[in-house]
Amino acid sequence: MMIKQTKYIGILCAILSAVCYGTNPFGALPLYEEGVNTATVLAHRFGLAVILLAVVMLIKRENFKLTRHEFKVLFSLGVLFAASSITYYQSFHFMDAGIASTILFVYPVMVAVIMAVFFKERVTAMTIVAIVLSLIGIGLLYKGGAGVSLSVVGIVLCVLSSLAYAVYIVVVNQSSIKMSSFKVTFYAMLVCEITLILYSFTSPELYLQVLPSRRAWSFAVWLSVVPTVLSLVFMTVAVHHVGATPTAILGALEPLTAVTIGVMVFGEMLTPRLIVGILFILFAVMLVVLGKDLRLRSITHAVSRLWHWR
After folding, report:
1. Contact assessment for residue 98 and residue 142, using Cβ atoms and an 8 Å cutoff
2. What is the DSSP letter of 227?
3. 150: Cβ contacts below 8 Å, ≥ 6 apart
4. Measuring CA to CA, how many Å separate 203 from each of 34, 39, 81, 149, 200?
5. What is the distance between the alpha carbons of residues 246 and 271, in angstroms, rounded to a whole number?
6. Which residue from 22, 159, 253, 255 has the highest number of Cβ atoms inside 10 Å of its Cβ?
7. pLDDT digit string, tens, across residues 33-72
8. Rounded-to-integer distance, Cα 225 and Cα 216, Å
9. Spatial contact of 244 and 172, defined as CB atoms under 8 Å apart
């Protein structure tokens, strides 16, 4: 009973993490529209997150001390997340946020491969089906027009971002450190902030700016709280409860979140293509949630019928 409860807590946290992270473009793109550069967006995102997490830790009276081993692990996490964020946000300058989010979602495949090759984790047929379903579903969510050419630079940036995020998840999963999710996220974001400040010196175009308006500050606060603090805290809990691969697969809800907000908030059209894409993603999520309680033959039959209906 306790094992099932732990599993469901992990799954719930993975879903919440994905939904929170899926709101990234809704904070970043308005800041770009106001002329704020990538380094400044990320520096404010991580800087405000560090302050918020420090306040939470003080309220909870958590110890800020680290051992040498803990410092090495958390330093690695910070650098990895900074690399993932920099490349992801830079890709917005070369392609639509929608397709960038789509390409980014190769990270569950990367997580599964890394866990199988380096840590001998068994990849089940159910896991493979879930990954394939989520990839198909996300592909259907992309609404790019016919004849749209993809930027090679943008694709490379997204793939690098995906790889860095995949390694981040694996490190969280494999690390032996015992501390709260808030403490893990605090130090990871602190290293991120330092990395971003150093990154801002690499190009004249990446200098740190003062945010130009209250509107810009509101989006910066949103970025620091929702797709950063909440997403990473939930993700850390999820990885420790259900593992790296299931957490990554449930990340399919990230682009689904963007589509849902687009339809409900901005009045975008809900087409049959989007509906089918959503159904594929929900099938993938169902596989992860129910796991061994489902029979693979029944699922593949249902998916086959759904594909023919499309």
Report:
1. yes
2. I
3. 95, 99
4. 20, 10, 20, 28, 7
5. 29
6. 255
7. 899 988 888 889 999 999 999 999 999 999 999 999 999 9
8. 14
9. yes
